[in-house]
């Protein structure tokens, strides 16, 4: 687990050996897992990150799996065009993970989210086009489906964003499709992530993802806070599944031309079920969840149809929910132990 080199080599062999790639947001949660996997597969990895989401600037905090590979960290923003152009030079692939990623955060600061997520994505596209990049893998979001009650969510459904964050991700998808149609040498794909979790996810943010927030609270002996009644459900997806989908997309021998592709497990779990699993792991009989009002912009249910990912990429989940959750909770528990 945790994307070991042996796992990635068994799945992707030498597909990225001696290949230069850029991972925007490469010091972040998903980006760092991608960077480590690519380096372990023999790629030369440039990781561009402004470190606003954490990290100490040298990748040492990622552990031995990252620093044994060829990864160079460039500190800076995707809003810096000249820096982005230098980072993209000679790259075959760009894995565009950099973004501001919170629904509540976007409601509080919509203009800032537009600047980073929309203008930043345009800058990435332009830098990639100028550098002759072969394909861009874009971190899209299941929030594009909005509050539709139709389940499962498939890619033929209309995008109905109900938060500024979701709107920025839908805009990014549109730009990727437009660039593939307008500039034939640049292929693109938008991978719609569903509720990603795993080791190294930031639990200290005010907008921490559910599993990171629940794990941190419960392991500290505090009651996890559930927003709403807890019967809302999500297609919780371990980060290794996302890394796998990105690598498969880069390797695709057929043009993808900006297609939107769900990345998930095709299974859903309620928040109440999730919290019960976390509490069971902690073995603290006194732990009970507390409830707070629902958050603005949150959807009630989310479940992915992953048939398109199977057909286009040959994707199937490599880590199921319970296995991934156990590994993730162990990681958070280890962080609490004295060093």
Task: Describe this structure as you would to a colleague.
The protein is an alpha/beta fold. The chain has a domain at 5-196 and 237-266 and 304-318: NAD(P)-binding Rossmann-like Domain (Rossmann fold, 3-Layer(aba) Sandwich), CATH 3.40.50.720. The protein is built from 12 helices and 13 strands. The protein has helices spanning 5-12, 29-40, 64-67, 81-88, 103-108, 110-131, 164-182, 210-219, 239-251, 271-282, 307-313, 321-336, and strands at residues 20-24, 44-49, 71-75, 93-96, 135-141, 187-193, 196-197, 225-227, 233-234, 237-238, 259-263, 269-270, 290-292. Strands 3-2-1-4-5-6-11 form a 7-stranded parallel sheet, with helices on both faces. Helix 2 (29-40) crosses helix 9, helix 4 crosses helix 6 (110-131) and helix 6 (110-131) runs parallel beside helix 7. The radius of gyration is 19 Å and the shape is globular. The two termini are 22 Å apart. The model is unreliable at 63-67 (pLDDT under 50).
Structural class, please? alpha/beta
CATH structural architecture of the domain at 5-196 and 237-266 and 304-318: 3-Layer(aba) Sandwich
Q: Any idea of the CATH topology of the domain at 5-196 and 237-266 and 304-318?
A: Rossmann fold
Radius of gyration in whole Å, from Cα?
19 Å
Low-confidence stretches: 63-67
Helix content: 40-55%
The beta-strand count equals: 13
What do we call the CATH homologous superfamily of the domain at 5-196 and 237-266 and 304-318? Answer: NAD(P)-binding Rossmann-like Domain
Q: Using the coordinates above, name the CATH class of the domain at 5-196 and 237-266 and 304-318.
A: Alpha Beta
- What distance lies between the first and last C-alpha atoms, to the nearest angstrom? 22 Å
Overall shape: it is: globular
């Amino acid at each position: 687990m945790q994307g070991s080199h042996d796992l990635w080599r068994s799945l992707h062999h030498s597909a990225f050996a001696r290949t230069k790639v850029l991972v925007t947001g490469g010091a972040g949660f998903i980006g760092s897992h991608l960077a480590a996997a690519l380096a372990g597969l023999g790629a030369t990895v440039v990781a561009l990150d402004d470190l606003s989401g954490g990290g100490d600037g040298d990748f040492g905090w990622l552990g031995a799996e990252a620093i044994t590979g060829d990864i160079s960290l460039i500190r800076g923003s995707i809003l810096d065009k000249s820096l982005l152009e230098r980072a993209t030079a000679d790259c075959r692939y760009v894995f565009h993970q950099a973004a501001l990623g919170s629904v509540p955060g976007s409601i509080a600061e919509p203009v800032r989210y537009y600047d980073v997520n929309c203008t930043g994505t345009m800058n990435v596209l332009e830098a990639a086009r100028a550098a002759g990049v072969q394909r861009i893998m874009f971190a899209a979001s299941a929030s594009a489906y909005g509050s539709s009650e139709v389940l499962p969510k498939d890619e033929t459904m209309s995008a109905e964003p109900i938060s500024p964050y979701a709107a920025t991700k839908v805009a990014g998808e549109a730009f990727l499709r437009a660039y593939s149609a307008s500039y034939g040498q640049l292929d693109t794909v938008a991978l719609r992530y569903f509720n990603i979790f795993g080791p190294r996810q930031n639990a200290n943010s005010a907008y921490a993802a559910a599993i990171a927030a629940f794990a941190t609270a419960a392991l500290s002996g505090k009651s996890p806070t559930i927003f709403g009644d807890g019967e809302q459900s999500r297609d919780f997806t371990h980060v290794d599944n996302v890394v796998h989908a990105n690598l498969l997309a880069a390797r695709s021998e057929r043009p993808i031309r900006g297609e939107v592709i769900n990345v998930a497990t095709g299974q859903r779990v309620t928040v109440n079920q999730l919290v019960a699993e976390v509490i069971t792991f902690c073995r603290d009989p006194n732990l009970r969840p507390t409830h707070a009002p629902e958050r603005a912009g949150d959807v009630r249910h989310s479940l992915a149809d992953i048939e398109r990912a199977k057909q286009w990429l040959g994707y199937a989940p490599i880590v199921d929910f319970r296995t991934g959750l156990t590994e993730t909770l162990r990681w958070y528990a280890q962080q609490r132990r004295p060093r």
